[in-house]
Amino acid sequence: MNEQNSHTSLSDGDPRYKWYITFCTMIGTLMVIMDTVIVNVGLPKIMASFGVNVNTAQWIVSSYMLSMAIMMPTVGWAGEVLGHKNLYLLSLTVFTIGSVFCALSWNIESLIFFRALQGIGGGALMPISMVIIFEAFPEEQRGLGMGIYGLGASMGPAIGPTVGGYLIDKFNWPSMFWINVPAGILGIMLTISIVKDIRPRRKIKFDFMGFITMSLFLTTLLLALVQGRLEGWDSNYIISLLSVALVSIIVFAMVERKANPPFIDLSLYKSGVYSSATIVSVFMGIVMFGATLLLPLFLQSVHNMNTLQTGLMVFPGAIVTAGLLPTSGWMADRFDPRLPMSIGITGFLISVYLGMRLDARSSDAFILALVIFRGVGIAMIFPPLMNTALMYVSPMKVGMASGLLNVMRQIGGTFGVALTSTMLEKRMAVHELTMGESINTASMGTQNALSGLQGLLHGSGVADSTTRAASLSLIKQYISGQALVSAFSDCFWIIFVIFIFVVIPAGAIRKKARSPSPEGQS
């Protein structure tokens, strides 16, 4: 039985299958994304429990991220050899077992190791889930399938901080890993009973040199991006990592041209639409992760919100995203994908523009508008982007293409976090220096301000001998606060400029009927 007939018989035999399988794969996606968010919330508790500093604790996040990134490109080969069902089942099992060991970790080293194990399982879950859904839905409904699947991905960042904060405060940090176990067991049981392999498995030789060079490239590049701000971007360590990354990707390209079969088939990029989707994925990763980092930092540092309040403030955006994802997918199936993407790009640009205007006086309604427009942007861009990109790929290469798109977004996201955190620090220092130089303690205006502050402090019971020093301290605090607000505005402006680069390649992502012969596709 050929692939097309197999697909038809499954759909005709049980039209509910595509909905069952979407719910099943959403469990794994939700677990992977929620775990990333929850662990970020729980880092202070882990640091206190093991008595480590933030630099050491950061490896809990980095080890997970690195192992995920390395696994994503293997989905193409592993999916063909093991079968898509078996790969999803294996990945979910490894992730669940890794969660158990993370909860049982006895020191920081063991936790870092088991987080890497988690990442090995989690890295394949998202791209293989997309492949399974892409094949389960008929071609005219794949955009809808991608949109509904995206519900799991959108809910992770929304409920993660709230659920994580509650569990950690109530039961301590191991609880954030234990919560994965019942969800993982449910997902494993559903996978065994529901998911079917539409295409037969194939024996494919593993390209070790391609895997090693690609893994070395991803590891050194992501390490450089993660540690650049800490170590210094011009330090020998970071320069060495970037040099190794550059050499690795050059060697990888040379190896893959001769490999048979290649670990990554570079002919995928002969498709202009797939190449454009890759560029959009990278830039969307930069701006989305960068903006996602900035807003919670702003709310906590400028508006003095705690973690729970911050989570509740950004939660409506996730609800908007979840509500619009199916609509976005439906539109991608019926119209030119550039229509929903244009709506999404407009929404995201408005959101970033509002971010540029944030200050200490910004109302909750203003912040809510920012969050909602960002939710619209994310929801309307990703389903048509992923669906259309995979339409231009041979069915035999959908797994590989999905893994590459995910890893490119991961690279973009890591760069976005590194860029925004570095620029926030640098721009704050610049604004503090500029504003500090404008304050002349000998000027009449400054003297009047100091006199007024000293009078207020004296009236509140502060001793006369300390009122001047306290007044100067208050002025410095005010300058630091204003410098921080200006730095946030600068960072949102940088994100705005970067996001403009999404518009051009997005214009090339157009719908095209799939050729009836897989051999005729790249």
Compact overview of the structure:
With 522 residues, the chain is mostly helical. It is 81% helix and 0% strand. The protein starts with a helix and ends in a 16-residue tail after the last helix.
What would you note in describing this structure?
By secondary structure, this protein is mainly alpha-helical. Helix content is 81%, strand content 0%. It is built from 18 helices and no strands. The radius of gyration is 25 Å and the shape is globular. The N terminus and C terminus are likely disordered.
Name some characteristics of this structure.
0% strand, disordered N terminus, 18 helices, 522 residues, mainly alpha
Globally, the shape reads globular
Oligomeric nature of the chains: single chain
- Give the tally of β-strands: 0
Which band does the percent of strand residues land in?
under 5%
Largest sheet: none
- Output the number of helix runs: 18
Low-confidence stretches: 1-12, 514-522
Give the averaged pLDDT, no decimals. 79
Layout of secondary structure:
Layout: H1 3-13, H2 17-50, H3 54-71, H4 75-82, H5 84-103, H6 108-136, H7 142-171, H8 175-178, H9 180-194, H10 208-231, H11 236-258, H12 272-301, H13 307-334, H14 338-356, H15 364-391, H16 398-438, H17 444-459, H18 464-506
Helix pairs in contact: 2-3, 2-6, 2-7, 2-9, 3-6, 3-10, 4-5, 4-16, 5-6, 5-9, 6-7, 6-16, 7-13, 7-15, 10-11, 10-16, 12-15, 12-16, 12-18, 13-15, 14-15, 14-18, 16-18, 17-18
